[in-house]
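Pipeline run #58 for the internal structure catalog. This entry was flagged by the ingest filter as a single-chain record with no existing model, so it goes straight to prediction. Upstream metadata was stripped on purpose; only the residue string is passed forward. Reviewer on rotation: M.T. Logging verbosity set to normal.
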Amino acid sequence: MKLILASMSRYRREQLNALGYTFEVVPADVDETPRIGESARELTLRLAREKAKTVAAQHPGCIVIGSDQVGVCKGEILTKPGNRQRALDCLMRYPNNTVSFETAVAVRNLDGLVYADVITTTIKFREFDLTEARNYVDLDQPFDCAGAIKSERHAPLLFEWVCSDDPSALIGLPLIRTSSFLRLVGINPLRKDDPSTH
């Protein structure tokens, strides 16, 4: 079975590679504008589904993974900052505050059935100043990360605590949920030599 990751994210690509999945990368071209009244959770789930559906339509006969992530601070949805100043502006909202990150995954099988879920990761940030924020940004350059948080590098230096059902979700793809969905469609790197899985 051919597996496709419908994302250009190098972080998601690295996550899947690390677990031994064989896949191709085909970015999905979808409008990521939030709808009126749409919550962060609803937005990420919709976009993950749409990405999987869009790429599957272009590549019939393939299993497709779609994913999306946003942050939420004081009710405001946070996406990728794109540059240094916007990253700093985003970070300086965090000291002594709690921020949630919603990470959705959708796996579309060969029959068009979509398995999807959203994992919430809640982070309590410690008190920190602009100097620390600047140093973090210069070290990690988190311009392509939702909410300017690159948790696999120096961002934990700003954390007080983290709560999540799946610690990998904050990087970009909730691997526990993703691997569970992939097992449902017959893809399991731990059984790749078992003929019953082909």
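catalog note: The two ends are 8 Å apart (CA to CA).
catalog note: Residues 82 and 143 are 5 Å apart (CA to CA).
status: ready for reviewer M.T.
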